[in-house]
Description:
Mean pLDDT: 96
Number of domains: 1
Strand content: 5-15%
Shape: globular
Structural class: alpha/beta
Amino acid sequence: MSEHTSQVAIITGASRGIGAAIAERLANDGFAVVINYSGNAAPAEQLVRKIEASGGKAITAQADVSDPDAVARMFESAEAAFGRIDVLVNNAGILKTIALAETSDEEFDRHFAINTKGTFNALREAAKRLQNGGRIVNFSSTTLALNMPGYAVYNGTKAAVEAFTQVFAKELRGRDITVNAVAPGPIATDLFLNGKSDELIAQFSKMPPLERLGQPSDIASVVAFLVGPDAGWINGEIIRANGGLA
Length: 246
């Protein structure tokens, strides 16, 4: 365990994919981690057991991030278990590629409820509960820089998150809390791979100059840096972790 032993991190959407990789990495770095999930408890509980088996500290916290009351209860659970909150990682999100003209009201509302309002809800709660000197990492996406067809609504949700990031960093003046965002490129997770042909996956793999898909651990490493002691002078930034894609 490192010098972070007493620090506590909430990671939303942490039962699988990038969120799970972040939870494992931060637990390995010495953070006590709160693994948020929305529906299926089994993967979150399995991740807690894995972290505890390696000597780390972790709990699960069920919450639909689009529900402000549920988000408040998640923060309360973290404080009850560990006594403090130092880090918030707003990783929870959804993605469905669909042309703007074909997007239903329900699909529009669902994307903004989870990706945008979910981030807003957690940021607002963090303003009240995060320890001075804490760290916040939001999640945007490299798709925002690519302007690909089918991503209009999703990109809209992430553009709002980038705006939140840069303004909130200034609104927390005087508390020594940094607020940054990570914007991954294509990452080899179920969320990305499901529904794509082998040919399309191969095409995405060749897009970055490094000629591979990112791995969840690549993003976890960036988050670990941003919440660690070496990133104390980075604030209000969008880190495009995409292998040089954009």
